[in-house]
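Sample 3 of the quickstart, ligand zinc ion:
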Amino acid sequence: MSGRALPPAGLRPHRYRAPLLKLLDACGEPVSAQTLYAMMRADGTRAGLSTVYRELHLLARMGCVREMRTETETVYDTSARDLLMCDSCGRVQQVGRSVVAGLAEIMDGFYLSGPVTVHGRCRRCGPTAA
Ligand SMILES: [Zn+2]
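Result:
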């Protein structure tokens, strides 16, 4: 859990926002709005799917969640992990900070200020056609 169960100051309270962030924190991996919607319904929260989308977009704009697009869906994450993400199937793998920091060192004086998501295609999906 990243400990970000409540929205930051300045964000208008909404009754579904805190439960949504709590669920995202508990997931520990990027998930789609549809998955979060199903989880909220299973927990007894009666938010509509459009409300879930609207809240996720707002939280992404505010920098509270990461919004990542694959070829088939958009997924959301609250973690501060550095990730490799397959844009085709959505598979995600965490990478060590030292690996990403090593890439940043290629540009002299470049310091990472937040989590990084490297997009590409996994071995199973293969490279894109040239
Ligand atoms: Zn893939």
